[in-house]
Amino acid sequence: MNIILGAAAAAGLVLLGLAGWQAIRAQRVSAALRETQLRLASHEAALAAARADNAGLAAEADRLALLAQEHAALLGENQRLLEAGRQAAQLLDAAPFPIWRRAPDGALVWVNLRYAEMTEAAPTDVVARGIELASAHDLDRPRGLAREAREAGHPVAEERRFVAEGDRRNYRIFEVPLPDGFLGFAQDITPEADARGQLRRHMEAHLEVLRTISTATAIYGADKKLVLWNRAYARLWQLDEAWLEQRPTFGEVLEQLRASRRLPEQIDWQAYKRAQLGLFTTVIERQEELIHLPDGSTLRLVISAYPSGGLFFAYDDVTRQLTLERATNTLIAVQRATLDNLYEAVVVYGPDGRLSLYNRAFAELWQLAPDMLNHQPHITELLEATRPLMQHGNDWLTWREQAIDGFAARRASQGRMERGDGRVIDYASVPLPDGAMLYTYMDVSDSIRIERALRERNEALERTDRMNAAFISNITHELRSPLGTLISMTEVLSQGILGPVNARQAEYGRDIMQASRHLLRLLDDIIVIAAIEVGQLALEPAAFAPDELWAETVPAWRELAEHRGVVLEVAPQADLPACQGDAQRLRQALGSVMMAALNGTPQGGEVRLTCGKTDKHGLLLSIACRSGGHAPLNPPRLFADLVSTAERRQGHADLSLLVARGLIELHGGSVTSLPDMQGVQITLPILAGAIAAPERPL
After folding, report:
1. Helix axis angle, 57-94 to 2-53, nearest 10°
2. Which one is predicted more confidently, 8 or 160?
3. 684 pairs with which residues across the strands?
4. Of all helices (H) and strands (E), which one includes residue 191?
5. pLDDT by residue (tens digit) across 138-189?
6. Residue 447: its pLDDT value, please?
7. Alpha carbon 83 to chain centroid distance?
8. Which of 26, 177, 183 is nearest to 95 (CA)?
9. DSSP string over 223-279
């Protein structure tokens, strides 16, 4: 636009120059013509006088001829100038902008057609009425501008706004002083004025925005003086607003900031100041840097060239942002380290389906290269990359579609998959608040194998239990019943019910009876042991007095002790409370232990049975053996099957002691050796009011 306006002004000046040159030339020719006419008239008068006196007639005639020639030339030149004047007038009338001439007193003497069109009058009416291009309340201003041009001695111009052709427009008026008056023309600058107004409004709006934003901003002009600043700038640098209103220079502001210790410490302050002032001549492109202030805050400075000259400074306090960024980076690093050290494989897909986070376990589990994962592949790309591991049979496409549909639906799910290489993976998906999806994978192949092995072993144990139950049933039915029949028939034969028997037959009958009863006891022990092992032995608990465990069997024990030459002492504690349990089974167990003690103690020895209460409200039975010095006694071997675990037992086990241990443990009791290894202690937690023993299958 400026180029167009400049071209129009230049064209106006050319036209005005041409018209002025033509006018000056016409004036000179007219003056010469008038001078020649005067000279011709004087010569004609002199010639008439010469003719009267006939003196000097020839010389005057020659001069008169020369003057006639000069007069004719001037007439021709005048005619040409008049024609050139008409052409110049036509050219000026064709100009697209108004042109006019003024008399020395400033009155209009000529206007072109464009001037007349703008005033909506004929050119002669414009001159006659003195219609000026000015507003109604400022009609004297055009002549005043002409006088200013006369006083200045050179063309002057001013902008004027008035109504032309029914529209209010802006014009730049030029007045050019001439020897015999003034030449003037007007240039339509309405688009330029509108553009300037719009630019001014935009700048005012931008400046108002700069004043209100939270970013500290300051604009320094080309003279390095402060042009504009906002309150954020004053607050940031703790500067007095009244002082800033005085438009200090950039150097003065730097000195003030240095005095208040607001700028970073500098080794060479003068060099730093020169470098800062040099920015006004070196900054072309936008520059950005971080400033670390002495108070620990950090500012982001943006410097850019201001369109009208000078520099624009913008400061942002990024201390909190940097702190949050460091905290965020630390948190991300901690999360990354945490994820990388998880046993589970973890992967996160963003809302766009691209991988955003993963750990090493994920890459190792699915055999994916880190270079591929670091490029954030799409979920479909990862599915294709895992196809060799997942494809087994014709269900690959179905599984792929289900995985993609599950991601698109953003639903939580969990399940188990079996890969083509035989590994079993537990997976779970969780939708995240930001639209992403979290997937976790765990290889449970080893657990599955152990589970399957345990299940197979459990099935084998169940089969064993069924076989044991069948074995017990078979023994009871197939062995015990015939053995009972054999004992009964032997008793019938021995008693002579079927007929008299001789001494030898009676002896054989007694041997058969003794062997059969021993075999029956062994069979009973085997059945009890098997029933205990499979948890099928049924107890019949009831309240009983502790002395019921030995009261009925003490006579038999004493008979055996006398037969073995062993001293038996039974010394129970008085006032023992009632107990709860299967008295018959406990009596059987205690009897087996006492029989083993009596049979294992050499002649002259002593067996002592004591009974009392333990600190934990249990029943304590203690059986101590002493050899009496006649033969060695080895209690550990004597009670090995009673106090040793099943893994430590050797062959030739005493089944009666095994049965006793099983019955005691079935009641929640325990068997331990005495400190001097001369006997055993049996603890039964079955006193009335005591805490019940843990439940066991009966």
Report:
1. 160
2. 160
3. 619
4. helix 190-212
5. 778 888 888 888 888 888 888 888 777 777 888 888 988 888 888 888 888 8
6. 82
7. 88
8. 183
9. TSBEEEE-HHHHHHHT--HHHHTT--BHHHHHHHHHHTT-SPP-SSHHHHHHHHHTH
